[in-house]
Amino acid sequence: MNILITVCVLLLLAYLFDLTSSFTKIPSVILLLVSGWLVKQACYVFNITVPDLNPLLPVIGTVGLILIVLEGSLELDVDKTKFPMIKKSIVVAFLPMIILAALLGFFFQYIGGYTLKDSIAYAIPFCVISSAIAIPTVKTLHSRVREFVVFETSLSDILGVLLFNFVALNAVINTDSMIEFFVEISIITVLSFITTICLSLLLTKVDHHIKYSPIIIIIILFYGVSKIYHLPGLIFIMIFGLLLGNIKRISKLKFFRKINYKAIEVEVNKLHELSVEAAFLVRALFFLLFGFLMHTRDVLNTDTIWYAVGIITAILLIRLVQLLIYKIPLIPILFIAPRGLITILLFVALVPAPAGSIVGTSLVIQVIVLSALVMMVGLMFTPKELEAKNEEMK
């Protein structure tokens, strides 16, 4: 019963952090991590025995990632006027990822003595922007900033997972592996369209009072099955959300004209509300658990802190050049590049680095915390008039 009370209190605190983040400019993820860490210290003080919770982290994280990408893609309103912004967000999400992965890959190879393939695999988790942190943080900013961040971070998650799977799961990277990779993307894209049509019809045909939970369960199931066959499941979630969220425009296409989009729109709004609520709960649980599992020695590890600072500096410099080239407003977008949930999930999926290596839990935690602090400082120094000017971003 004490555990139940503690979890409920922590989740209510998470809700309070979410409510006040727009005023304090402090990302709720930092407060959640600190809260989880404080609970662990309380367990030490009062000699409370807690079972091993490490196996829960990747499970909760995966569900959270699915719900966050679904939530973000459902609220994106796509039309021709936004194509320039979408193109920019794709480039800004992917190009810095490739550059940073190459730089860190060569650096890890140089200092760690790994193969270049393994070094790049270790580097990729540090190259992915966390939509789990970025999307909730920008919810109070101008709609143009929100849309850009949702597109960029969701694409960063998807492209990062694709790149990671391609590098980590292929023993040899050659022409055959590249062809197989693009075949997998084609398969998941086709399956996404078919599944979206079926689930759309299910939303309107089912009269039972419970209809949204099975939809979300099916989405998670589809993602889980796709992982078994090494298919990029996040592409399915992104396509599913975008198609349902823009069903009115899609219904004008010849193939979709028989779809009753008005009925689907009502159901999609309710599905979106449920996904928002569920994403909040799962995201809060994940970062509370991660904070609980953190060790103080990892956060304060002096052997890796300067490497973490170097990675954050490289992230900001590459991002600065990219934003200047594409004439995207620097404030606050320059600072909204946190690492978080997806970084942890990808790192957990890797074979542990040799003992004594700098590529470990300490470096991951420090990069996550520092990137969140940089985002916090950037948001604190973002004047409201500059946020208004971001409306001109195309």
Describe the structure.
By secondary structure, this protein is an all-alpha fold. The protein has 17 helices and no strands. Helix 3 packs across helix 15. It is globular and about 60 Å long. The protein starts with a helix and ends in a 5-residue tail after the last helix.
Keywords:
single chain, 394 residues, mainly alpha, Na+/H+ antiporter like fold, disordered C terminus
Large-scale geometry: globular
Indicate the CATH architecture: Up-down Bundle
CATH fold-level label: Na+/H+ antiporter like fold
The whole-angstrom Rg is 21 Å
Strand content: under 5%
Structural class: mainly alpha
Helix content range: over 70%
> Total helix count?
17
Question: What is the average per-residue confidence, as pLDDT, rounded to a whole number?
Answer: 84
SSE series: HHHHHHHHHHHHHHHHH
- Can you tell me the CATH class? Mainly Alpha
How many β-strand stretches?
Answer: 0
The low-confidence parts are: 388-394
Termini Cα gap: 52 Å
What characterizes the major β-sheet?
Answer: none
What's the domain count? 1
